[in-house]
């Protein structure tokens, strides 16, 4: 059976000590959260400190990005193997902010996917359409192309380690959430698309919804058969909200 997952993308927020406090609160408050994998993704600088706080808990650690190369003269980059050394087991890839502000292309993402598997990290791979694409009724085509150009290139064994996050760009940080019907429609489409390439294995893939998910709307989103949890931005910075979302299944 596929996993239910709630992952928090902290983006470029919190000082290291705030991040330590937030992760300690999450560990404490998640003790009665059952059957849901929690993941937190702090900035790189916080990973080792947050790993200390999470040790022995049921909350796992993720990075928000990794380098496209293994090692060497790539100033400012952090390799997947270095991330794994901190205790992280996951890495967000393909977030729309990386695609939009840092020019990440499908080609870069293919390299990063390879680095994740070589470094023993499971990718949380984001796809999603922009507002104009949704309004032009091109969202299915856009998402299919994003998957075909990246995840479709994986070996079946590696595909089994991937978590998909559907994040409509128009819903990220805007307070506009996809309706439960819109989320289910696209999640089912993503699963069908993945099944065209990977067959029954796509039934085991966790597909998370991301985009202004909060304690008030999480329940109606997670109630849908193909919505296996959430990738949470803003609401993951408050432990009470993050835990309330994790309790929304
Ligand atoms: C995100 O950036 O992954 C995200 C879902 O952000 P928010 O929840 O703030 O919309």
What is the strand and helix layout of this fold?
Blueprint (H helix, E strand, L loop, with lengths): L4 E5 L6 H14 L7 E5 L5 H8 L4 E5 L16 H6 L4 E4 L2 H6 L4 H13 L3 E6 L3 H5 L3 H10 L7 H4 L3 E4 L13 H19 L8 E4 L7 H5 L6 E4 L6 H8 L3
Parallel strand pairs: 1-2, 1-8, 2-3, 3-4, 4-5, 5-6, 6-7, 7-8
Phosphoenolpyruvate binds next to strand 8.
Label this structure with key terms.
single chain; 249 residues; alpha/beta; TIM Barrel; binds phosphoenolpyruvate
How would you describe what is shown here?
The chain is of the alpha/beta class. It has one domain (4-246): Aldolase class I (TIM Barrel), CATH 3.20.20.70. It is built from eleven helices and eight strands. The chain has helices at residues 16-29, 47-54, 80-85, 96-101, 106-118, 131-135, 139-148, 156-159, 180-198, 218-222, 239-246, and strands spanning 5-9, 37-41, 59-63, 90-93, 122-127, 163-166, 207-210, 229-232. The chain has an eight-stranded parallel β-barrel with strand order 1-2-3-4-5-6-7-8, surrounded by six helices. Bound molecules: phosphoenolpyruvate. Phosphoenolpyruvate binds at residues 9, 167, 172-173, 210-213, 231-235.
The distinct ligands, each listed once, are: phosphoenolpyruvate
- Count of DSSP H/I helices: 11
Secondary-structure arrangement, i.e. CATH architecture:
Alpha-Beta Barrel
Strand count:
8
Share of β-strand residues: 5-15%
Helix content: 25-40%
Radius of gyration: 17 Å
CATH class: Alpha Beta
Question: pLDDT average, as an integer?
Answer: 97
Strand order in the largest sheet: 1-2-3-4-5-6-7-8
Q: List the secondary-structure elements in sequence, H or E.
A: EHEHEHEHHEHHHEHEHEH
Q: Structural class, from helix and strand content?
A: alpha/beta
Low-confidence stretches: none
Largest sheet: 8 strands, parallel, barrel
